[in-house]
């Protein structure tokens, strides 16, 4: 029987959603983890930790979904991408594990609490930087020969990938600051506003640099953005990015509590859209398009059945956990 429906776009949307939701949800709690290292005192650290305690581990569900979805739906891409970014992914996973251990041990090891506090902050920073390096490696591309990665173990390590690693640290810091403004009060919130403006400055600088560097690095990306009518069609992305950045800067200096967090999300949405515009329909940049890397239609159809049952479950329990733990936090009693 001939399959009429092309499942590649559907799986592209599922994986795109999984990656983006992971970036937003784990992004803000990694950002909070980095800002945690700048907390002024024990009470502030407790309040900051309480703001993410109920949700931080569930956020990583989306990372698992994205990784397994890539393996199942686009195995050729998985086989090429993972060797290319093996070391930054390994570092990221080890940092996430170390961060999780630190989160639990700081509550039970009173004598070593300072060590575990620093471990939690450094683990968050290292995991974020590693994710940014993976992103930079994907955007700049890497050598592929006969359907296999043809580079070395250090191919990922370039000035561009280091830039994106640092840029993502500022980006997650901005999300974390927005979350703390939303969930805390007083001196913690005031500090988050100041930190948010510093992170926003870093984000704007990183976006501007990447936006200039990427078309210089790739003629295909330059043609995608700067030929007619694409230049008019895609112009709203950088224009809206500038408008939202300016609006978020002002919101960080105001009394608004919810809007700064959503301003940060807006910047991530537009940055994600910019990457999609630059790379689609490639899944291994400049080497393989989605259809070349996809598994068989029967495999994708089989996997889609289970995924369509799984996704509503994940969305439901994730949404419910955020709803239950809505509101402000306090250092002594958690949520009020």
From TrEMBL:
It is a multi-pass membrane protein. Keywords: Cell membrane, Membrane, Transmembrane, Transmembrane helix. It is found in: Cell membrane. InterPro entries: Cyt-d_oxidase_su2. The chain crosses the membrane at residues 7-25, 72-98, 119-142, 162-182, 203-225, 231-249, 261-283, 303-325. It holds the Pfam family Cyt_bd_oxida_II. Belongs to the cytochrome ubiquinol oxidase subunit 2 family. NCBIfam families: cydB. This is Cytochrome d ubiquinol oxidase subunit II. It comes from Rhizobium mayense. The gene is cydB.
């Amino acid at each position: 029987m001939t399959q009429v429906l092309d499942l590649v776009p559907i799986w592209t949307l599922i994986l795109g959603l999984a990656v983006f939701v992971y970036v937003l949800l784990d992004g803000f709690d990694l950002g909070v983890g980095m800002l945690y290292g700048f907390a002024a005192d024990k009470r502030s650290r407790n309040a900051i930790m309480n703001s993410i305690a109920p949700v931080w581990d569930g956020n990583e569900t989306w990372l698992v979904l994205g990784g397994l979805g890539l393996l199942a739906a686009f195995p050729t891409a998985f086989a090429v991408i993972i060797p290319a970014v093996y070391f930054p992914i390994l570092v990221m996973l080890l940092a996430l594990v170390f961060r999780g251990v630190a989160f639990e041990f700081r509550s039970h090891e009173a004598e070593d609490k300072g060590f575990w506090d620093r471990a939690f902050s450094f683990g968050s920073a290292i995991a974020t930087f590693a994710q940014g390096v993976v992103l930079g490696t994907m955007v700049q591309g890497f050598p592929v020969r006969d359907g296999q990665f043809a580079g070395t173990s250090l191919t990922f390590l370039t000035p561009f990938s280091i830039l994106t690693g640092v840029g993502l640290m500022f980006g997650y810091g901005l999300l974390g600051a927005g979350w703390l403004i939303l969930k805390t009060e007083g001196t913690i919130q005031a500090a988050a506003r100041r930190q948010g403006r510093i992170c926003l400055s870093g984000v704007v600088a990183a976006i501007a640099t990447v936006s200039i560097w990427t078309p210089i690095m790739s003629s295909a990306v330059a043609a995608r953005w700067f030929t007619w009518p694409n230049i008019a069609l895609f112009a709203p992305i950088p224009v809206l990015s500038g408008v939202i950045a300016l609006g978020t800067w002002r919101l960080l200096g105001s009394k608004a509590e919810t809007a700064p967090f959503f301003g940060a999300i807006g910047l991530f949405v537009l940055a994600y859209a910019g990457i999609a515009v630059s790379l689609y329909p490639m899944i291994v940049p400049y080497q393989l398009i989605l259809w070349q890397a996809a598994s068989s239609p029967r495999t994708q159809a089989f996997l889609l059945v289970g995924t369509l049952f799984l996704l509503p479950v994940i969305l439901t329990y994730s949404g419910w956990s955020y709803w239950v733990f809505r509101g402000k936090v306090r250092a002594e009693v958690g949520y009020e």
